[in-house]
Amino acid sequence: MSSTKLLRLVLPLLFCLAASGLYAQVRNDDSTVIVSGDRPGGNLYSKPLLLPEVPAGQFDLRQNQCETACARNGGCVAWTYIKSNSAIASGKCWLKSSITPLVSCPFCVSGTIGAPDTNRPGGDYRHFDHIGTGVRARTVNASQCKAACLREAQCQAWTWVLPDRGQGPNGNCWLKNEVPPAVPNACCISGSVSTTIIR
């Protein structure tokens, strides 16, 4: 089927959806990605990237692949992607078990799962330190805490308390129905969530 025929089929459908007033809600977190920054140390391991390298100056999807790899790894709380056009460790993704201080690196892009060393006390509607049941139960990590907040409509913010920081040997996830002020505290990693309506 030609692209013109496909367009003729799709455009009326899009027009009908727009006219009907249907919309989608997209849940976003407020994570910050730092361009030209590295977080040396705290490495879990270096992950090979499946997407091909791109020429310098073009949009590089490998950054998103690195960020997603961190979100899917239970022990990862930060990541650094060393761009393909750098002379050192070209196209590498480093997943990190701790959030180390940021240093300048012109070929790096770094991010964290939420805001490091930040607590958001108050507004809690539930908390948990395990997910799953029975033999499948496992301790919760920062990525799972953030993901739980993104899934639940009433959740507007979250705080993950690190293990052995006053709430037992496991990490503890607190989901919140408001966005309390951020308070500096090495106990925790926190984030907030916004909802965007796309019509």
Description:
This protein is an alpha+beta fold and 199 residues long. The chain contains 3 helices and 13 strands; from the N terminus they run H-E-E-E-H-E-E-E-E-E-E-E-H-E-E-E. The strands form 3 sheets. Strands 1, 7, 8, 11, 12 and 13 form a 6-stranded antiparallel sheet that branches. The chain has a 5-stranded antiparallel sheet with strand order 2-6-4-5-3, covered by helices on one side. It starts with a helix and ends with a strand. Mean pLDDT is 78; it is low at 1-11, 13-20 and 22-26.
What is the secondary structure topology, with strand pairs?
Elements: H1 3-19, E1 24-29, E2 33-38, E3 43-47, H2 62-72, E4 78-82, E5 92-96, E6 103-112, E7 115-119, E8 124-128, E9 130-131, E10 138-139, H3 142-151, E11 157-161, E12 172-176, E13 183-198
Antiparallel strand pairs: 1-13, 2-6, 3-5, 4-5, 4-6, 7-13, 8-12, 9-10, 11-12, 11-13
